[in-house]
Design goal:
The complex is a heterodimer of chains A (about 180) and B (about 190). Chain A is mainly alpha-helical and about 180 residues long. Chain A contains 8 helices and no strands. In chain A, helix 3 crosses helix 4. The chains are: A mainly alpha (about 180), B alpha+beta (about 190). At the A-B interface, helix 1, helix 2, helix 3, helix 5 and helix 6 of A face helix 1, helix 2, helix 3 and strand 2 of B.
Chain lengths: ~180, ~190
């Protein structure tokens, strides 16, 4: 059974009243959705609450899922919207995830890897949301252009142009930060 | 040194994933069950049907527990079936059969792919499986090795519930208007 078939089956069973079948959805998507929320700029504590809300909303609206679409793109689209709404509702934008302010302790390699990850994540958070979303959809969620277009509710060519601009802007941010450290 | 595009893409793709909090899954499932239990809230996910089914399954479970008690070898290793969560789908031209395990029961849901009405027979080996119940078919009639009912349209939800011997597994046949269209093997877990 393919992943898509598994998803559709779980949805079908949920719609038939078997709430426990939702565990099959969580098995596949709890981690990517959590990471999506974190990458979009929520801190860990908020990410937990946002994720919970995303999955509850998804469950409540399963009846409106169109099985001709791949389930994950429908889920990610809802997840992106929920996260953006949550982030917008914050009083002030926080430039960084709180957890990123506390880098991992040794060993040295782990520290270096963590620093590199933080550098990218900080760079992402410095971008306008539309560019951040394009990078996250394409590189982290590994969606196709078509799927990313659906998730982000924009035409495919907009995804491509945003990706191009987003990479350019991210490179600039990273270079500026390197200069600033020297 | 400037960051080139290729290097940037590699770094983006290499970003590690974080583990979600350990209690997130259980929190979501609890919230969903609370949502399901909230009066009037669960219609979108089969709420009313769920109550009917819960009562049906409770009755079915009683029958099956009795069956399992009778057929279980006296000094069994104690290895009762660990039920797999996934559903298996069998397809024929006229019918799709969904099979899944739910605790000690195996559930079978034949769904029409075209129009009805058609007569469905679900048949099993009585030495390795026992009838536990059928829901969603007003005209269902059952014997010790088969149940017969009518499917009228593709959205009709009829579920046949069987208790399957934990050490044997079983095989189920589905007939449409007297013609065998699906043979489903229910393996030992």
């Amino acid at each position: 059974m393919t992943g898509d078939e598994h998803d559709r089956m779980c949805v079908e069973r949920c719609l038939q009243g078997e709430a426990e079948a939702f565990g099959g959805i969580l098995d596949r998507y709890e981690k990517p959705v959590y990471n999506l929320v974190v990458r979009l700029g929520a801190d860990r504590e908020d990410a937990r609450d946002i994720c919970q809300q995303i999955f509850i909303n998804i469950y409540k609206h399963l009846a409106s899922y169109d099985p001709s679409r791949r389930f994950f793109s429908w889920l990610y689209r809802a997840a992106v919207n929920e996260t953006i709404n949550h982030l917008k509702s914050r009083r002030a934008w926080e430039p960084l995830n709180r957890h990123l302010e506390h880098p991992l302790p040794n060993p040295e390699e782990a520290l270096e890897a963590a620093e590199q990850e933080q550098e990218i994540q900080r760079g992402l958070l410095a971008l306008e949301m539309k560019y951040r979303l394009a990078l996250i959809a394409y590189y982290f969620l590994q969606l196709s252009y078509e799927e990313a277009a659906y998730v982000l509710s924009v035409p495919e060519k907009t995804v491509k142009s945003r990706l191009f601009t987003a990479r350019h802007l991210l490179r600039q941010v990273l270079e500026e930060r390197r200069h600033a450290r020297r | 040194m400037p960051v080139d595009d290729e290097q940037l893409v590699r770094r983006l793709e290499a970003m590690p994933e974080e583990e979600p909090p350990g209690d997130l899954r259980s929190a979501i499932l609890s919230a969903i069950q609370a949502e399901q239990a909230r009066p009037g809230a669960a219609a979108a996910v089969g709420g009313r049907r769920r109550l009917v089914f819960a009562a049906g399954w409770a009755m079915a479970a009683l029958v099956v527990l009795t069956f399992l008690t009778l057929v279980r070898p006296p000094s069994d290793s104690g290895r009762y079936a660990t039920m797999a969560p996934l559903t298996t789908r069998y397809e024929s031209e006229d019918l799709t059969l969904l099979v899944w395990r739910d605790d000690t029961l195996v559930k079978l849901q034949p769904k029409l792919t075209g129009g009805g009405p058609v007569t469905i027979i679900v048949r099993w080996d009585p030495d390795s499986a026992a009838f536990a119940g059928v829901l969603g078919a007003a005209d269902a009639s059952s014997q010790n090795n088969q149940t017969t009912f009518t499917l009228h349209h593709p959205s009709q939800r009829t579920v046949v519930s069987l208790g399957v011997h934990p050490a044997k597994g079983t095989e189920v046949l589905v007939l449409v208007d007297g013609v065998e269209v699906i043979r489903a093997e229910i393996p030992v877990n």
